[in-house]
Amino acid sequence: MTAATVAADLTNEGVGVVTAETSQTLDRGLRVLKLLADTDHGLTVTELSLKLGVNRTVVYRLLATLEQHALVRRDLGGRARVGLGVLRLGRQVHPLVREAALPALRSLAEDIGATAHLTLVDGAEALAVAVVEPTWTDYHVAYRAGFRHSLDRGAAGKAILSARRTPLAEPGYTLTHGELEAGACGAAAPLLGVTGVEGSVGVVMLADSVPERVGPRVMDAAREVAEALR
């Protein structure tokens, strides 16, 4: 950028104004990250060029910049994928997601009289990031934020897997019994339509079976949380 261009981009108070060129570059970089986040197999420079509608030279420059910040990596075959630097940014996401989900979780816990939770995918595991216990019950399941388990065990993880199997349809809710704790039942429904967030909302209770009304109520809570995150 020349000195003349810089001068043209300053207001009378000397405050810099973001140029259209800078904004366009940032926009393209963010679009690259979103495209890579939506694929499990990565994308080539040619594929990114076609999806972005720009030439390959522009894509090479975008990828080089993103690689410097570890936000993108390229494998031996030249396919670009999301880099580990995104994980550092992602650590700050959980508190924001938790805060947005708490009102719906409180309502769910009080309504059902069971411990409500928001669970997100963390690698190959399900991670409870927010937990709300009911205030009026004599006893309930103690469930803590930070609890992890495999995705194929427990209602929370299985609800997430059900959404993966049926991405174009609402998969409903999942019920389990005794998979994570003896004598405890679980009901969970996946979060749907939230870009970049894969998870579920559910309850866990001490019972022989889950009451009939719990499943639909959990689905309603999952919709409320999804709406709060959009």
UniProtKB/TrEMBL annotation:
SMART domains: HTH_ICLR. It comes from the Bacteria. The keyword Transcription applies. Residues 23-84 form the HTH iclR-type domain. Keywords: DNA-binding, Transcription, Transcription regulation. InterPro entries: GAF-like_dom_sf (IPR029016), HTH_MetabolicPath_Reg (IPR050707), Tscrpt_reg_IclR_C (IPR014757), Tscrpt_reg_IclR_N (IPR005471), WH-like_DNA-bd_sf (IPR036388), WH_DNA-bd_sf (IPR036390). Pfam families: HTH_IclR, IclR_C. Residues 85-230 form the IclR-ED domain. PANTHER family: HELIX-TURN-HELIX TRANSCRIPTIONAL REGULATOR, ICLR FAMILY, HTH-TYPE TRANSCRIPTIONAL REPRESSOR ALLR. This is Helix-turn-helix domain-containing protein. It comes from Streptomyces similanensis.
